[in-house]
Amino acid sequence: MTPSKSVRAIVRDRKSTKRVVRLGSKSCERNGSQPPRTLAEMANVGPATLADFKVLRIERVDQLAKLKPQDAFRLWNKLGRLTGHRHDPCVIDLFLSVISQANGDKPRPWWHFTSQRKAMQQA
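^ thats the sequence. predicted structure below, dont judge the formating
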């Protein structure tokens, strides 16, 4: 599953010289952006992910900040149990992304976490 070119595009913000990466319909400054205050402000989080968070009873960024990377697998398994169907493994990548952001790391596209997920699955 490869993201479309429009999702991967790195563009220049016309009002400044900062590089901006487009993540879906959102953009995040790459250098020193403020940490997200709400789940909806997080990179890679759209309506479907917000709905998943609701199912998982995750309502605030600080709840994600308490999690470790390996908790992404636990969230994915729990989401599958609660919804009654198996979700694509890229959802784990997305959970790794938002856990990383909530813990103060710069936002990165979810597909940057695929190799981390695969390495964690092999361990």
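Helices lie at 5-8, 47-55, 61-65, 71-83, 90-102, 114-122.
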